[in-house]
Protein: IQ domain-containing protein E
Amino acid sequence: MVSMLEDRLATIRQIYAPRAKSGKGGRTRNESGHPQTSKTPTLPPAFPTNTRMIAYRVPSAQSVFSLARSKAGRSPRMEQLNDAREQLLQSKRNCAKLVQENTILKTRLLKLSAQSGKREHHLQRLLNRESFEPAESYDTNEAITLATFQKRLIKSEALIKQQQDVIEKLKNDRVRARSAASERRHSETRGIRGGEPTQERSQSLDDLLAKNERLAEKYRSLKRENKYLRERIARLETRHNGDDHELSDWSKEDLINLVNRLETRALKAPIRAAVATLEEKTEVGKLIKELTSVHRNLENSQQENEVLKSEVETLVKELEHARIVHKDARPPGVPPLDMKSIDNVSDSQEDDQTGNAYETYQDGEQNEGQRTFDLDVVAMEVFEHTKAHLSRIKFLREQMKKQ
Structure:
Protein backbone atom coordinates (compact mmCIF):
# COMPACT_ATOMS: atom_id res chain seq x y z
CA MET A 1 0.00 0.00 0.00
CA VAL A 2 2.87 2.37 0.79
CA SER A 3 4.44 1.75 -2.62
CA MET A 4 1.13 2.44 -4.32
CA LEU A 5 0.78 5.71 -2.42
CA GLU A 6 4.32 6.71 -3.37
CA ASP A 7 3.58 6.01 -7.05
CA ARG A 8 0.48 8.16 -6.92
CA LEU A 9 2.38 10.96 -5.19
CA ALA A 10 5.05 10.84 -7.91
CA THR A 11 2.36 11.01 -10.59
CA ILE A 12 0.65 13.96 -8.89
CA ARG A 13 3.97 15.77 -8.58
CA GLN A 14 4.58 15.23 -12.30
CA ILE A 15 1.14 16.67 -13.08
CA TYR A 16 1.17 19.70 -10.78
CA ALA A 17 4.86 20.53 -10.89
CA PRO A 18 5.77 24.07 -12.20
CA ARG A 19 6.54 23.97 -15.88
CA ALA A 20 9.73 25.45 -17.24
CA LYS A 21 9.31 27.86 -20.23
CA SER A 22 11.30 27.18 -23.34
CA GLY A 23 11.42 29.01 -26.68
CA LYS A 24 11.08 25.89 -28.82
CA GLY A 25 7.44 25.43 -29.70
CA GLY A 26 6.37 25.52 -26.10
CA ARG A 27 7.86 22.13 -25.28
CA THR A 28 8.28 21.54 -21.55
CA ARG A 29 10.28 19.10 -19.52
CA ASN A 30 9.24 17.34 -16.35
CA GLU A 31 11.37 16.75 -13.25
CA SER A 32 13.10 13.80 -14.82
CA GLY A 33 14.10 15.86 -17.86
CA HIS A 34 11.95 14.09 -20.47
CA PRO A 35 10.12 16.39 -22.91
CA GLN A 36 6.35 16.55 -22.92
CA THR A 37 4.56 16.78 -26.31
CA SER A 38 1.17 18.08 -25.22
CA LYS A 39 0.12 20.73 -22.77
CA THR A 40 -2.76 18.61 -21.45
CA PRO A 41 -1.46 16.33 -18.71
CA THR A 42 -2.43 12.70 -18.65
CA LEU A 43 -4.35 11.52 -15.57
CA PRO A 44 -3.26 8.46 -13.61
CA PRO A 45 -5.15 5.24 -14.24
CA ALA A 46 -6.70 5.38 -10.77
CA PHE A 47 -8.66 8.54 -11.65
CA PRO A 48 -11.77 8.20 -13.88
CA THR A 49 -11.61 9.71 -17.38
CA ASN A 50 -15.29 9.55 -18.32
CA THR A 51 -16.48 12.82 -16.80
CA ARG A 52 -19.90 12.68 -18.44
CA MET A 53 -20.82 9.48 -16.58
CA ILE A 54 -19.62 10.98 -13.34
CA ALA A 55 -21.76 14.07 -13.97
CA TYR A 56 -24.91 12.01 -14.57
CA ARG A 57 -24.35 9.86 -11.43
CA VAL A 58 -26.39 10.44 -8.26
CA PRO A 59 -24.09 12.22 -5.82
CA SER A 60 -23.52 10.52 -2.47
CA ALA A 61 -23.20 12.21 0.93
CA GLN A 62 -19.42 11.97 0.80
CA SER A 63 -19.29 13.48 -2.67
CA VAL A 64 -21.63 16.27 -1.62
CA PHE A 65 -19.44 16.97 1.39
CA SER A 66 -16.33 16.92 -0.79
CA LEU A 67 -17.99 19.29 -3.27
CA ALA A 68 -18.95 21.66 -0.47
CA ARG A 69 -15.39 21.67 0.77
CA SER A 70 -14.08 22.15 -2.74
CA LYS A 71 -16.19 25.26 -3.00
CA ALA A 72 -14.39 26.53 0.11
CA GLY A 73 -11.06 26.21 -1.68
CA ARG A 74 -10.13 22.43 -1.42
CA SER A 75 -10.69 19.79 -4.03
CA PRO A 76 -11.45 16.06 -3.45
CA ARG A 77 -8.12 15.21 -4.97
CA MET A 78 -6.32 17.32 -2.38
CA GLU A 79 -8.40 15.65 0.34
CA GLN A 80 -7.32 12.23 -0.87
CA LEU A 81 -3.75 13.41 -1.02
CA ASN A 82 -3.88 14.74 2.52
CA ASP A 83 -5.46 11.52 3.77
CA ALA A 84 -2.76 9.53 2.06
CA ARG A 85 -0.11 11.72 3.64
CA GLU A 86 -1.65 11.32 7.09
CA GLN A 87 -1.80 7.55 6.66
CA LEU A 88 1.79 7.54 5.51
CA LEU A 89 2.93 9.60 8.51
CA GLN A 90 0.95 7.39 10.88
CA SER A 91 2.50 4.30 9.33
CA LYS A 92 5.96 5.82 9.70
CA ARG A 93 5.28 6.64 13.36
CA ASN A 94 4.10 3.09 14.02
CA CYS A 95 7.12 1.74 12.21
CA ALA A 96 9.44 3.93 14.28
CA LYS A 97 7.76 2.77 17.49
CA LEU A 98 8.10 -0.85 16.45
CA VAL A 99 11.75 -0.36 15.55
CA GLN A 100 12.41 1.29 18.92
CA GLU A 101 10.58 -1.46 20.80
CA ASN A 102 12.46 -4.07 18.82
CA THR A 103 15.76 -2.42 19.73
CA ILE A 104 14.80 -2.34 23.43
CA LEU A 105 13.78 -6.00 23.37
CA LYS A 106 17.00 -6.97 21.62
CA THR A 107 19.02 -5.13 24.25
CA ARG A 108 17.09 -6.85 27.03
CA LEU A 109 17.56 -10.22 25.35
CA LEU A 110 21.30 -9.66 25.10
CA LYS A 111 21.45 -8.66 28.76
CA LEU A 112 19.47 -11.71 29.90
CA SER A 113 21.55 -14.04 27.74
CA ALA A 114 24.72 -12.57 29.26
CA GLN A 115 23.35 -13.09 32.79
CA SER A 116 22.32 -16.65 31.94
CA GLY A 117 25.78 -17.37 30.57
CA LYS A 118 27.39 -16.01 33.73
CA ARG A 119 25.16 -18.15 35.94
CA GLU A 120 25.78 -21.23 33.86
CA HIS A 121 29.51 -20.63 34.01
CA HIS A 122 29.32 -20.14 37.78
CA LEU A 123 27.35 -23.36 38.26
CA GLN A 124 29.74 -25.30 36.06
CA ARG A 125 32.66 -23.93 38.02
CA LEU A 126 31.03 -24.93 41.31
CA LEU A 127 30.11 -28.42 40.13
CA ASN A 128 33.51 -29.07 38.58
CA ARG A 129 35.42 -30.78 41.37
CA GLU A 130 38.83 -30.51 39.74
CA SER A 131 38.76 -26.76 39.10
CA PHE A 132 36.94 -25.93 42.34
CA GLU A 133 39.02 -24.47 45.12
CA PRO A 134 37.50 -23.54 48.50
CA ALA A 135 39.76 -20.48 48.66
CA GLU A 136 37.93 -18.98 45.69
CA SER A 137 34.65 -18.90 47.56
CA TYR A 138 33.85 -16.03 49.86
CA ASP A 139 31.90 -18.29 52.23
CA THR A 140 33.66 -21.21 53.94
CA ASN A 141 30.39 -22.88 54.92
CA GLU A 142 29.30 -22.81 51.30
CA ALA A 143 32.47 -24.63 50.28
CA ILE A 144 32.03 -27.27 53.02
CA THR A 145 28.38 -27.79 52.10
CA LEU A 146 29.29 -28.13 48.44
CA ALA A 147 31.96 -30.72 49.24
CA THR A 148 29.45 -32.68 51.36
CA PHE A 149 26.91 -32.63 48.56
CA GLN A 150 29.53 -33.80 46.11
CA LYS A 151 30.39 -36.74 48.37
CA ARG A 152 26.72 -37.62 48.67
CA LEU A 153 26.31 -37.36 44.94
CA ILE A 154 29.28 -39.66 44.32
CA LYS A 155 28.03 -42.25 46.82
CA SER A 156 24.50 -42.09 45.46
CA GLU A 157 25.80 -42.56 41.94
CA ALA A 158 27.87 -45.54 43.10
CA LEU A 159 24.83 -47.13 44.76
CA ILE A 160 22.69 -46.47 41.72
CA LYS A 161 25.37 -47.98 39.50
CA GLN A 162 25.54 -51.10 41.66
CA GLN A 163 21.79 -51.49 41.58
CA GLN A 164 21.75 -50.90 37.84
CA ASP A 165 24.41 -53.57 37.39
CA VAL A 166 22.33 -56.02 39.40
CA ILE A 167 19.23 -55.10 37.39
CA GLU A 168 21.08 -55.49 34.11
CA LYS A 169 22.42 -58.85 35.23
CA LEU A 170 18.93 -60.01 36.15
CA LYS A 171 17.61 -58.75 32.83
CA ASN A 172 20.34 -60.63 30.99
CA ASP A 173 19.60 -63.76 33.00
CA ARG A 174 15.95 -63.39 32.15
CA VAL A 175 16.72 -62.99 28.46
CA ARG A 176 19.03 -66.00 28.57
CA ALA A 177 16.40 -68.02 30.37
CA ARG A 178 13.82 -67.07 27.76
CA SER A 179 16.17 -67.95 24.93
CA ALA A 180 17.07 -71.25 26.58
CA ALA A 181 13.39 -71.98 27.15
CA SER A 182 12.60 -71.23 23.51
CA GLU A 183 15.48 -73.43 22.37
CA ARG A 184 14.37 -76.25 24.62
CA ARG A 185 10.81 -75.82 23.40
CA HIS A 186 11.97 -76.06 19.80
CA SER A 187 14.11 -79.08 20.57
CA GLU A 188 11.17 -80.66 22.37
CA THR A 189 8.93 -80.10 19.38
CA ARG A 190 11.62 -81.55 17.13
CA GLY A 191 11.89 -84.55 19.44
CA ILE A 192 8.13 -85.02 19.41
CA ARG A 193 8.12 -84.92 15.63
CA GLY A 194 11.02 -87.35 15.46
CA GLY A 195 9.45 -89.73 17.97
CA GLU A 196 12.15 -89.31 20.64
CA PRO A 197 11.27 -89.47 24.38
CA THR A 198 10.73 -85.96 25.78
CA GLN A 199 9.89 -86.61 29.45
CA GLU A 200 13.28 -85.44 30.68
CA ARG A 201 13.16 -82.43 28.41
CA SER A 202 9.71 -81.42 29.63
CA GLN A 203 10.90 -81.81 33.22
CA SER A 204 13.93 -79.62 32.59
CA LEU A 205 11.73 -77.09 30.81
CA ASP A 206 9.42 -76.94 33.83
CA ASP A 207 12.42 -76.44 36.09
CA LEU A 208 13.69 -73.68 33.85
CA LEU A 209 10.32 -71.93 33.84
CA ALA A 210 10.16 -72.18 37.63
CA LYS A 211 13.67 -70.74 37.85
CA ASN A 212 12.61 -67.94 35.52
CA GLU A 213 9.68 -67.11 37.78
CA ARG A 214 11.95 -67.12 40.82
CA LEU A 215 14.40 -64.81 39.10
CA ALA A 216 11.60 -62.46 38.09
CA GLU A 217 10.35 -62.38 41.67
CA LYS A 218 13.89 -61.76 42.89
CA TYR A 219 14.24 -58.93 40.39
CA ARG A 220 11.05 -57.30 41.66
CA SER A 221 12.16 -57.70 45.27
CA LEU A 222 15.56 -56.17 44.49
CA LYS A 223 13.87 -53.29 42.73
CA ARG A 224 11.67 -52.67 45.77
CA GLU A 225 14.72 -52.93 48.01
CA ASN A 226 16.56 -50.41 45.85
CA LYS A 227 13.69 -47.97 46.12
CA TYR A 228 13.44 -48.58 49.84
CA LEU A 229 17.18 -47.98 50.31
CA ARG A 230 17.00 -44.74 48.37
CA GLU A 231 14.15 -43.51 50.54
CA ARG A 232 16.01 -44.53 53.69
CA ILE A 233 19.18 -42.78 52.57
CA ALA A 234 17.20 -39.63 51.82
CA ARG A 235 15.55 -39.79 55.25
CA LEU A 236 18.87 -40.31 56.98
CA GLU A 237 20.41 -37.40 55.10
CA THR A 238 17.56 -35.10 56.06
CA ARG A 239 17.45 -36.38 59.64
CA HIS A 240 21.18 -36.26 60.35
CA ASN A 241 22.17 -32.98 58.77
CA GLY A 242 24.63 -32.27 61.57
CA ASP A 243 26.44 -35.62 61.18
CA ASP A 244 27.01 -35.56 57.44
CA HIS A 245 30.76 -35.75 57.82
CA GLU A 246 30.34 -38.96 59.85
CA LEU A 247 27.69 -40.69 57.72
CA SER A 248 29.43 -39.76 54.48
CA ASP A 249 32.36 -42.07 55.34
CA TRP A 250 30.13 -45.09 56.03
CA SER A 251 29.77 -47.98 53.63
CA LYS A 252 26.59 -49.40 52.19
CA GLU A 253 26.54 -52.36 54.60
CA ASP A 254 26.99 -50.06 57.61
CA LEU A 255 24.14 -47.84 56.48
CA ILE A 256 21.91 -50.87 55.94
CA ASN A 257 22.80 -52.23 59.39
CA LEU A 258 22.10 -48.82 60.93
CA VAL A 259 18.70 -48.68 59.27
CA ASN A 260 17.90 -52.23 60.42
CA ARG A 261 18.95 -51.46 63.99
CA LEU A 262 16.85 -48.32 64.08
CA GLU A 263 13.88 -50.21 62.69
CA THR A 264 14.26 -53.05 65.17
CA ARG A 265 14.51 -50.58 68.04
CA ALA A 266 11.47 -48.72 66.85
CA LEU A 267 9.58 -52.00 66.48
CA LYS A 268 10.79 -53.53 69.74
CA ALA A 269 9.97 -50.52 71.91
CA PRO A 270 6.15 -50.97 71.83
CA ILE A 271 6.57 -54.75 71.97
CA ARG A 272 8.70 -54.50 75.10
CA ALA A 273 6.24 -52.12 76.68
CA ALA A 274 3.38 -54.50 75.87
CA VAL A 275 5.36 -57.47 77.20
CA ALA A 276 6.17 -55.61 80.41
CA THR A 277 2.52 -54.71 80.82
CA LEU A 278 1.51 -58.31 80.19
CA GLU A 279 4.12 -59.56 82.64
CA GLU A 280 2.86 -57.17 85.27
CA LYS A 281 -0.66 -58.27 84.56
CA THR A 282 0.33 -61.95 84.68
CA GLU A 283 2.24 -61.44 87.93
CA VAL A 284 -0.72 -59.63 89.44
CA GLY A 285 -3.00 -62.39 88.16
CA LYS A 286 -0.73 -65.05 89.63
CA LEU A 287 -0.66 -63.26 92.96
CA ILE A 288 -4.43 -62.90 92.90
CA LYS A 289 -4.80 -66.59 92.08
CA GLU A 290 -2.37 -67.56 94.83
CA LEU A 291 -4.14 -65.28 97.29
CA THR A 292 -7.49 -66.75 96.28
CA SER A 293 -6.16 -70.29 96.69
CA VAL A 294 -4.66 -69.36 100.09
CA HIS A 295 -7.99 -67.90 101.19
CA ARG A 296 -9.73 -71.00 99.96
CA ASN A 297 -7.26 -73.27 101.75
CA LEU A 298 -7.66 -71.14 104.85
CA GLU A 299 -11.41 -71.49 104.71
CA ASN A 300 -11.05 -75.24 104.21
CA SER A 301 -8.58 -75.39 107.08
CA GLN A 302 -10.96 -73.43 109.28
CA GLN A 303 -13.76 -75.81 108.38
CA GLU A 304 -11.51 -78.80 109.08
CA ASN A 305 -10.45 -77.14 112.31
CA GLU A 306 -14.06 -76.76 113.35
CA VAL A 307 -14.74 -80.39 112.48
CA LEU A 308 -11.65 -81.51 114.38
CA LYS A 309 -12.64 -79.42 117.37
CA SER A 310 -16.04 -81.05 117.39
CA GLU A 311 -14.41 -84.48 117.05
CA VAL A 312 -11.95 -83.67 119.86
CA GLU A 313 -14.78 -82.53 122.10
CA THR A 314 -16.67 -85.71 121.30
CA LEU A 315 -13.59 -87.82 121.98
CA VAL A 316 -12.90 -85.98 125.23
CA LYS A 317 -16.46 -86.60 126.32
CA GLU A 318 -16.14 -90.26 125.37
CA LEU A 319 -12.83 -90.44 127.26
CA GLU A 320 -14.34 -88.93 130.37
CA HIS A 321 -17.27 -91.25 130.07
CA ALA A 322 -14.92 -94.22 129.60
CA ARG A 323 -12.88 -93.15 132.63
CA ILE A 324 -16.00 -92.84 134.71
CA VAL A 325 -17.19 -96.23 133.53
CA HIS A 326 -13.73 -97.73 134.11
CA LYS A 327 -13.52 -96.14 137.54
CA ASP A 328 -16.94 -97.44 138.45
CA ALA A 329 -16.17 -100.91 137.07
CA ARG A 330 -12.75 -101.07 138.73
CA PRO A 331 -12.67 -103.57 141.64
CA PRO A 332 -11.74 -102.17 145.00
CA GLY A 333 -8.32 -103.77 145.06
CA VAL A 334 -7.22 -102.61 141.53
CA PRO A 335 -5.19 -99.35 141.34
CA PRO A 336 -6.36 -96.53 138.98
CA LEU A 337 -5.08 -96.21 135.36
CA ASP A 338 -1.76 -94.37 135.05
CA MET A 339 -1.83 -92.41 131.71
CA LYS A 340 1.84 -91.41 131.97
CA SER A 341 3.00 -94.91 131.27
CA ILE A 342 1.13 -94.89 127.93
CA ASP A 343 3.53 -92.37 126.37
CA ASN A 344 6.49 -94.64 127.10
CA VAL A 345 5.01 -97.60 125.31
CA SER A 346 7.14 -98.73 122.40
CA ASP A 347 5.87 -99.19 118.89
CA SER A 348 6.26 -102.96 119.04
CA GLN A 349 4.31 -103.14 122.26
CA GLU A 350 1.70 -100.83 120.73
CA ASP A 351 1.43 -103.08 117.67
CA ASP A 352 1.20 -106.17 119.87
CA GLN A 353 -1.46 -104.55 121.98
CA THR A 354 -3.33 -103.37 118.88
CA GLY A 355 -3.18 -106.88 117.43
CA ASN A 356 -4.37 -108.38 120.72
CA ALA A 357 -7.23 -105.89 120.81
CA TYR A 358 -8.15 -106.67 117.21
CA GLU A 359 -8.03 -110.41 117.93
CA THR A 360 -10.11 -109.88 121.04
CA TYR A 361 -12.62 -107.87 118.96
CA GLN A 362 -12.77 -110.64 116.33
CA ASP A 363 -13.23 -113.21 119.05
CA GLY A 364 -15.97 -111.05 120.41
CA GLU A 365 -17.64 -110.94 117.02
CA GLN A 366 -17.43 -114.69 116.80
CA ASN A 367 -18.81 -115.02 120.27
CA GLU A 368 -21.68 -112.59 120.02
CA GLY A 369 -22.67 -113.23 123.57
CA GLN A 370 -19.25 -112.23 124.94
CA ARG A 371 -17.70 -108.85 123.74
CA THR A 372 -14.63 -107.83 125.69
CA PHE A 373 -12.36 -104.76 125.00
CA ASP A 374 -8.96 -103.94 126.34
CA LEU A 375 -9.62 -100.56 127.96
CA ASP A 376 -5.92 -99.67 128.15
CA VAL A 377 -5.59 -99.99 124.38
CA VAL A 378 -8.74 -97.94 123.77
CA ALA A 379 -7.54 -95.18 126.06
CA MET A 380 -4.14 -95.14 124.36
CA GLU A 381 -5.72 -94.83 120.87
CA VAL A 382 -7.99 -92.01 121.98
CA PHE A 383 -5.04 -90.16 123.49
CA GLU A 384 -2.93 -90.52 120.34
CA HIS A 385 -5.74 -89.28 118.12
CA THR A 386 -6.36 -86.32 120.39
CA LYS A 387 -2.68 -85.43 120.49
CA ALA A 388 -2.42 -85.58 116.65
CA HIS A 389 -5.46 -83.34 116.24
CA LEU A 390 -4.12 -80.80 118.73
CA SER A 391 -0.73 -80.64 116.97
CA ARG A 392 -2.45 -80.14 113.62
CA ILE A 393 -4.61 -77.34 115.00
CA LYS A 394 -1.51 -75.64 116.41
CA PHE A 395 0.30 -75.92 113.05
CA LEU A 396 -2.68 -74.46 111.18
CA ARG A 397 -2.87 -71.53 113.58
CA GLU A 398 0.81 -70.75 113.04
CA GLN A 399 0.33 -70.84 109.25
CA MET A 400 -2.63 -68.48 109.51
CA LYS A 401 -0.59 -66.03 111.59
CA LYS A 402 2.25 -66.07 109.03
CA GLN A 403 -0.13 -65.34 106.15
Q: What stands out?
A: The longest helix spans residues 252-329.
